[in-house]
Amino acid sequence: MLLRFNLIRLVTFGHYSDIPERNILMGYLLYMLVGFGLLMLPVSHVADVGWLDNLFTAASALSTTGLATVDVASTYSVFGQCVVLFLIQLGAVGYMTMSTYIIYRLTHHAMSFSSKVVSTSMAVPAGMELRDLVNSVIHFTFIFELAGFVAFFIALYNADIPLPGWNALFLSVSSFCTAGFSPFPDSLCMFSDNVLVNITVAVLSYAGAMGFIVITDLTHKVRDRAYMVSFTTKVILLITGIMTVGGTMILAFSPGVVPVSGSGHRMALSFFQTMSAMTTVGFNTIDLSALPVGPILVFSLIMFIGASPSGTGGGVKCTSVTAVWGFVLSKLGLRRRVTFLGRAIPFYRVDTALTAIIVYGTVIFLGCVIMSYSETFRLSQILFEATSAIGTVGLSTGITAELSDTGKWVLIAMMYIGRVGVITFGSALVIRARRNNANVVTADLAA
Predict the structure, then answer these.
(1) What residue ranges in 285-436 does DSSP mark as E strands?
(2) What is the predicted pLDDT for the residue at 255?
(3) What is the per-residue burial (b if ≥16 Cβ within 10 Å, else e) of 83-117?
(4) pTM of the model
(5) Within a 13 Å sphere around the CA of 308, how many CA atoms are in the beta-carbon half?
(6) What distance in Å separates the CA atoms of residue 402 and residue 388, rounded to the nearest whole number?
(7) Which residues sit opposite 45 in a β-bridge?
(8) Which residue pairs from 398-404 have beta carbons closer than 8 angstroms and sit at least 24 positions apart in sequence?
(9) Residue 113 confidence (pLDDT) above 70
């Protein structure tokens, strides 16, 4: 018991609150600061880099966003890149999920504190014990990242890329965690014609974005034809398919966006960029700085929706969009019952989805307002950057490195909020305020 308590104290840096949302909030803030401190060490970089850029990199890595004000490959040493990779892995899996797994392995038990935080940060399927879920998530992550490493190593080795082992590991973790950090200065533009690299990124990104629950459902279905896939999995697959096909077609037929003449290559590049925005992995194989307003708005919408609730991706989540869509249709049809695809949606899920979309949109609006005063870029570029930040996507039209200090602070805050989740962030503040107000009222009554 004492060992478990000391381990919990260690991974939370001594912070404890009986409100799980606040533990998540403080946990990611503390780990972001630790990552920032490590990146500030002289051994972490091989080129001059400002402290705000180090903080930006730490926030981007821990939030698995991928936006960068400096080139990671040429700025940071191997040690610095290891720090970035560790933050990516920690941010994707969840610091409490990873620490709970370690505690399970060392003590074969977990404290209620860690259980509450993990249950708050991720959905626990019905009938599954928390311990089994944590073990499965870690094993699921390791298997996919190992398979990705092998595929990337083969591709990079055949392409005569220096340090194929390290670059393959970096790409595998970054792809599955939908982080978008690349060990190459042009993201993945140099691999736009490399089929193996493109397919591996897509498979890992879809697996990470859809998450353990969906992949487990599909695996059971392949093994047993009689197995009934959950309604949530069906919704995620449907919306994922619609966004993939729709975004690919819009981008492919938008003039001047994809600079190739062959229809097959054009479709392949359009698919990759749509997949990158939807899974929030944030890699690009074309130059996004020349995007016209139309595709920028389409990509912003895709990034706003984002991935599934059980995965490593960001956004308001596709299930939230379907819940709100069902709510709108029920109101237009003057029906009290909210349904989607013939299935009733509980009102608490509708309330959560509406809250998420409203808060999410409000944060984007406020971020754009502040940046419209501090930056000189077009509003469409600012909107794209802000949506990419809070959606933890990492795609950029090329303005990230040119942002003012104010703009960088705004994106740091948005990436942090996007990682902990707008509902978690808002709940932590509101619950605290409510309890503080209750204390004030109690004190007034006592006086």
Answers:
(1) 339-340, 343-344
(2) 77
(3) bbbbbbbbbbbbbbbbbbbebbeeeeebeebbbbb
(4) 0.86
(5) 24
(6) 16
(7) 76
(8) 398/287, 398/288, 398/289, 399/375, 400/67, 400/68, 400/69, 401/68, 401/69, 401/70, 403/69, 403/375, 404/374, 404/375
(9) no
